[in-house]
Amino acid sequence: MLRHFALNSHQRNITIEAHGGTGGPGGQSGSGSGGLGGIGQGPQFHVSGTSHWTVHGATETVFSTAVKTKQRKLCPIPVPSFTGRQEILQEIHQYFGQAQETRLIFILHGLGGSGKSQLAFKFVQEAQVKKRFSDVFFIDATNEETADTDLKLLVPGSDNTSEAALSWLASNHNDWLIVFDNADDVELDIAKFFPPCTFGSILITTRNPQLSIHGVDSQVSNMAVEDASNLLLKLVGRKAVQDNKKELATAIVKELHCFALAVSQAGGYINAQGDFEGYLALYKVSRDRLLKRNDIQGQSQYNTAVYATWDLSYNKLNPAAKLLLQIFSQLHHEGITKNIFEKASLSELRMDDNDFQVQVNQVLAQLGGSNHTWDGLVFNNIVGELQAYSLIEQNLHDQSFNVHPLIQQWNNDTTKQDMGFIQRCALAIIAMSSYFNTEDFKYITTLLHHMTRLSPLFQKPIDLQISVWLAYIAHLQGRWHDTEILYGAVCEKEKQFLGEEHPATLRNMHNLALTYRKQGRWSDAEGLQVVVLENQKRLLGVEHPDTLISMGNLACTYRVQGRWSDAEELEVKVLEASKRLLGEDHPATLHSMNNIANTYWNQGRWSDSEELEVKVLEARKRLLGEEHPNTLLSISNLAHSYNHQGRWRDAEELEIKVLEARKRLLGEDHPHTLTSMNNLACTYSDQGRWSDAAALRVAVLEARKRLLGEEHPDTLRNMHNLALTYRMQDRWSDAEGLQVVVLENQKRLLGVEHPDTLISMGNLACTYRVQGQWSDAEELEVKVLEARKRLLGEEHPDTLSSMANLACTYSYQGRLSDAERLEVIVLENRMRLLGEEHPDTLGSMNNLATTYRDQGRWTDAEALQVRAVEAHKRVLGEEHPHTLDSMHNLAVTYRNQGRWTDAEGLHIAALESQKRLLGEEHPHTLISMNELAYVFEHQARYSEAKALRQAAQDIEQRKDAASKCTQIDKFVATLPELALPGAVSENPVLQLLHGTYTQNSKKPRKWKRVFTSCFGSIGERNIEHEPGYLRSD
């Protein structure tokens, strides 16, 4: 049974270009009207939206940069003073030294501070000297987030999800060791982070004895008196040993119950103070004082002993050291850097609460920052004091600082400071350190664990400007829930103190609306935007800049809802106002013109879209220069228009020009550079250059993971897009594996019915379909269709696309009546909503015609296909790829009717155009060569057929001699089983055409227009007038 596919629909990407917030009275300089004095003009930034682009039933997309080496965490070395524990060390060595017939797991469990981690580090150090393991991987298992983050850094290459890391380890048949440190959280399912294999070694440190079920365990309790005494003497130094302090050391460690952490702390104190003899008396006083406190009563003997040693050290600290330790205790216990405090000290961020601003500045002044300057020596002296008392440790691998979680707990239990203030101060420092550093995605990512630890404060009153900036950071990281909480709190506070109609309130309502839109809550976004726009019209005037910005954003929301006429109406108003008030060459006018071009494109008015884009580009070249960022954006947009017109070589030329300029001007890691790499990859894919496309996609994905993190929405989109490239290469398992990972993450992070989640679900269904898993495909497609009907309405473009895809699956299952019913609905709706000549309407026409042909209704099929061919020629031109595909489909119908001469004419016309436009090596050209050969065979022109097939095979072998599955095999359709004169050739393509080829026979080739969607910034559709997230000023 034959089913042909035309090229798929291409929906343009949205990119937000912002030019900062607006300044207010008392604030810094900005554009437009004021509000609260504060941040003023924000940083220029670009936020890539989703694009939906599909090619031949697959969805395509990407971002990227040059691949850089990932830096995984190395196992820390034990402290130089490590002493004793020989019995347990020997036990671990014996366990991991046995003949390995299965995976070995050893669990060190015991109280916090008993020395479990140091014991593990010592074992690793000794094992490495003996070359016991091929490699050692260190994982911070404090919680699921930290474990997931560290795992992702292990796997080489681009697929560095935690799942990919585990799969990589499972395929790495060397004798490796994984160390899971601090797996104390009882909610953590540590087993989910074990590689799925029966070999390898795992060492776990934990306070949770329940983890012993996973393997052999050893309890780490208090040290032997001899070992504890030796440890203390080693910490104090050689002089104590020479002075024969052994007896005194023994008395001290007995008083400390020989707890390793308490002994270590005592050694730090004695070493810093030089008072060995007086320590025992001081300790007893400190302990007794602690025991009288209500908040300490009820603590265990262990906690009391440890707390008393810390209390002694804490009381000896200078005020600045005490303050820094308190702030460290609010952050994540690892990865605390000097950079955070330096950037905060130099920050220009001005808070709404002047008193709190003064207090935070006073805190930073004690730590090395004063009047927007930074003295690193002061900070170094403070952390040196904390290190001297063993209260913090420095990671020598990255120079960051770590605090033992028990020290954090002790500090929060015993400090007499206002912990609420310290927590708010820590949060302010995080926000200030990120101010105007948002382009440094790698740095912003290092703040995430600290923000997560402080996130309970998001539900409490926070300074207005701090909230706005934290919301923006959360937005950059794709943490929409946190963004919504923060902007929601800002809006409520501004309504309370400024009123519902104050410009600052309206601006942050606008920001909240944009957050709703990011979450796929388009109705909520629209409702809020309408309120903002109506208020701005009444209070500021219809032509005020803020009003025009809101009008443009509402138009964008209409566009994603498929309400293109409503979007166009608003955008025309914005453009006319901009022309009249600012002039035709003003940047805002050019932004508006570009936005209308985007809407024209969605309406299928590609010539109108191109005309406007050329006008914008010429103006920008003249006014800004050839390499201004806005000019490059316009060049990229024009390239995208060329792409959709089938002018792929023109598109490639422009995209390479933009990519090279951005690499040179912005750097290889800049988001715009990554967008350009993505666009070029898409054009390569259109040209059938999938290896080139895959190489760019891998680099893009690697960059996104490194810059944004593994679970950022953009990273997930790009992971998904790489899966689509794998699908085009017939790497079905690889594609499915990545798509499943992406879908599960999106369900968890964005929600089951978020637009991105539904796109992934639909594309996974497509992968199931081409693998012959039709029931699985149908199940997912029904879910997507029902969700879109409920959320978007029955006539939304995405809903109709889902309906068309389900119809395609029905046709694969032979349910032609069900397929016809859905395709008629889709075609009628598209004709009414989009017009008879919109590209999507013509695609639906071809699909229904194909179903008619499969039903043997060749006259009905021919009538629709003739209409489609004529419309394509008229609208897109005679040589557009969509036109050529329509000609091909009509030719197949002629073949079914036995009209070989008519079919030959169409095939020859299409083939000549494809050779000239696409080149001989393009998959579509190769398909057409074999289809024409098939016609020759039915006309008994065997020598011509043989020559044509041989030419196609020669080209294919030249392209990729090592390929297991040729491009011909990938694309050629399974033709009807027609009787052919003569014996069937041994040529596998001929066998395939004649129905005798069995490879992948469960996957019938169907060449039908599929309306799946794709992620990323394909085509870089630049919504230039949209300001993105504005700061409240």
Tell me what the structure shows.
The structure is a single chain. With 1033 residues, the protein is mainly α. It is 61% helix and 5% strand. The chain is built from 44 helices and 15 strands. It is globular and about 110 Å long. The model is unreliable at 1-69 and 962-1033 (pLDDT under 50).
* Order of neighbouring strands in the sheet with most strands: 7-8-9-6-10
Helix content: 55-70%
> Low-confidence stretches at least 5 residues in length (pLDDT < 50)?
1-69, 962-1033
Helix tally? 44
Q: Note the overall shape.
A: globular
Radius of gyration: 33 Å
Number of strands: 15
Largest sheet: 5 strands, parallel
Region (Disordered): 16-41
GO molecular function, one term: ADP binding
Biased composition (Gly residues): 20-41
Protein name: TPR-like protein
List the defining traits of the structure above.
1033 residues, mainly alpha, 5-stranded parallel sheet, 3-stranded antiparallel sheet, 5% strand, disordered N terminus, disordered C terminus
Topology diagram in text:
Layout: E1 10-11, E2 15-19, E3 44-48, E4 52-55, E5 58-59, H1 86-97, E6 104-109, H2 116-129, E7 135-140, H3 144-152, H4 162-171, E8 176-181, E9 201-206, E10 216-219, H5 225-236, H6 238-242, H7 246-255, H8 260-273, H9 276-291, H10 301-316, H11 319-328, H12 338-346, H13 354-367, E11 369-370, E12 373-374, H14 376-388, E13 393-394, E14 401-402, H15 405-414, H16 419-434, H17 441-446, H18 448-454, H19 464-476, H20 480-497, H21 503-518, H22 522-540, H23 545-560, H24 564-582, H25 587-602, H26 606-624, H27 629-644, H28 648-666, H29 671-686, H30 690-708, H31 713-728, H32 732-749, H33 755-770, H34 774-792, H35 797-812, H36 816-833, H37 839-854, H38 858-876, H39 881-896, H40 900-917, H41 923-938, H42 942-959, H43 967-971, H44 988-994, E15 1022-1023
Helix pairs in contact: 1-2, 3-4, 5-7, 5-8, 7-9, 8-10, 9-10, 11-14, 12-16, 16-19, 19-20, 20-21, 21-22, 21-23, 22-23, 23-24, 24-25, 25-26, 26-27, 27-28, 28-29, 29-30, 30-31, 31-32, 31-33, 32-33, 33-34, 34-35, 35-36, 36-37, 37-38, 37-39, 38-39, 39-40, 40-41, 41-42
